[in-house]
Amino acid sequence: MAALNISLEPHLVEILTPLKPLLPSELATQLLPYVSEPALPTVPYPLLQSISQWTRTAEGLLVLQSASLDPHSYSMVALLAGTTTSPERKFAAYTPEKSPEEAEALKRAERRAITYLINALLSILGSGFAAWWAAGKTGWRSEWQVLFALLVAAVVAIAEAVLYLIWDSRRSNKRPRRKLKISPEKRNQAVVKEVEASRGETGVPAGLRQRVKG
What we know:
With 214 residues, the chain is mainly α. It has 8 helices and 2 strands.
């Protein structure tokens, strides 16, 4: 999986710029292209994570205090606020999980649909056989028996198809539709959970897909 990027907003550049002379040489070198003019549009998530982790170390806290910088400004929640995750990429729309009641209702609807189709098939076959048998009793030739049976079966099949479409349309109209509404607070909570899960890890959290609005 490719590393995630974070949109480099002006306020993020303003927060990171004072850190450039204070960071360890390796982190300072990595940060330099993102606080220089012209600034890049995005900054790698792992870089922000490394900077945030350094500011929580004893050395980092001491350096920030000596420079009169607020350590809380460099938490991942503060750094991600108002930014967009990988704006250059397109993520699939989020689909909420079905509740147990919705899942059970869907299973019942599927069973009913299967039962209806089986009954329809039996009706078609039964009607065709009955027509063939009745035509034979009247003395029709075999080819006429078959044609009459096929005609009756086709009429029954069309009728069953129409009835199924009507039933399925009514079922779809009655099915409740859930609208996903995610408040900014919930977005922030999702990011906090991802950040907490990523602490102590060197990789980028694979589930971080949310957009955080300040």
